[in-house]
Amino acid sequence: MDHHNKLLITGASGFTGYHACKYFSDSGFDVIAISNKNSYPYKGVKWISCDLSDKKSVETLVKKTRPQYVLHLAGQNHVGQSWIDPVHSLEVNSFSTAYLIDALRQETPSCKIVVTSSALEFDPTSISTFNHPYGLSKTIQSLIAQSFAVLYNMNIVIAKPSNLIGPGFSRGVCAVFAQKIVSMEKNKTDNILKVNNLNDQRDFLDVRDAVSAYDVLLMKGKPGEIYDVNSGKSRSLKEVVKALKDIASIEFKVHSLLNDELETSIEIEPSKLINLGWKPAISFESSLKDVLNFYRKKRI
Asked: Which of 50, 78, 93, 293 is most buried, by the most CB atoms less than 10 A from its CB?
């Protein structure tokens, strides 16, 4: 076993974690998957259960595994949930990251770490950008990661993914729409898709493209830097629904709950990542097909 290739993936049973375990294991990494939930069998992946918000457990984990690489995906990623229990989001997103990075600082300080933050972070210097406790927890997470990179000269890179889509269980809007359409296709519900606001604009990227971006960042990312991981193209939910209509096997009506103005789209080119040699390979349409097919195969 080549121990110079040992990669710890946190949040391994989550949506991105599932794809990351598969990708890095297939790429020849010795993958150690960390989760406090369920594991699934995948060749070459070793599972360890750990509650990352428990400092002692994290220290034990790092002492035991001593990884050369870490992809930190674990977190509480639901905005609605963060309003209900804001301190939990801070524990899971901010403090878990601090425990993990600090344990690595003590055990394997040369370890290359990619911390996945969020496009929903706010600007800590501008109070008007503070929009939810989730954003607070992810902003603090980023600041912790950057601070350790600078103060302790650690090899930490921060990735800011946009809305990730693709096959697998996700709470994202495309997955929610797809599940609803699949239950229409199976005649289990009225053919009406309710959408909060069709003018809502988002950047969607296939989760498999995001994982290949994390690979590039583990190999070539500059310590202390923040990299946008996105498609560079903003789409309204109206476009998403239209694309789903084109590939669904049934007709359906769309009911928009709000008719807000069309937001001005903020398009952020992932130029820093592209300069490192990454580019997305999966089209939006084929991502959506894969989402639909994933739920078609599941019993909904």
From this structure: 93
